[in-house]
Amino acid sequence: MEKKITPSELELNEFIKIINEMSGIDLTDKKNILALKLNKFLEGTNTKNFSEFLGKLKSNRQLKQETLDFVTIGETYFLRELAQLKEIIYYAKSLEKRVNILSAPCSSGEEVYSLALLAAQNFIKDMYILGVDINSSVIEKAKLGKYQGRTLQRLSESEKRRFFLESEDKFYTINK
């Protein structure tokens, strides 16, 4: 059985400070949930205690990325914050010229693809959308453009047919 690695209050505060310095993300208000989830993450880091983990985190590039991936996992789905997305589309359409949009953080791409979907529905042809995120695993998922389940719940069946290719395993892949 794995030994549970539990950070002290001081160590947890140091961890939150390091994450903030690395990414600008402030996890202070998520301290309690973070403390609960950290042990499972730490099992894969090959460290004996939290102090050793903090030391490695400051110098190990791969561990930094894995840790950022761990702390940035969030909920996302197509057409989330629809009112805001529509405002962006209406503004872009009013400009009547090429529009460049940066979506940051873009997570696994649902926001970027939602903007592209809305742009197509509103006949906006000259739009470039760039999605960026510090979580490398979600960027890889976004590049695949392959989704299933709850993330698609706000899309109509006609939108799914128009913008996705459905596979036998019930995955929907962006129809590029």
Describe this structure in words.
Pfam families: CheR. Keywords: Methyltransferase, S-adenosyl-L-methionine, Transferase. It comes from Campylobacter jejuni. Residues 1-176 form the CheR-type methyltransferase domain. The chain is mostly helical and 176 residues long. It has two domains: 9-71, no CATH class; 82-174, Vaccinia Virus protein VP39 (Rossmann fold, 3-Layer(aba) Sandwich). Helix content is 52%, strand content 10%. It contains eight helices and five strands. The protein has helices spanning 9-23, 31-43, 50-59, 61-71, 82-95, 110-121, 136-144, 157-163; strands spanning 99-103, 127-131, 146-147, 164-166, 172-174. The chain has a three-stranded antiparallel β-sheet with strand order 3-5-4. It has a two-stranded parallel sheet with strand order 1-2. Helix 6 (110-121) links the parallel strand 1 and strand 2. The longest helix has 15 residues, at 9-23. It is elongated, with a radius of gyration of 20 Å. The termini are far apart. 24% of the residues are buried. The mean pLDDT is 91.
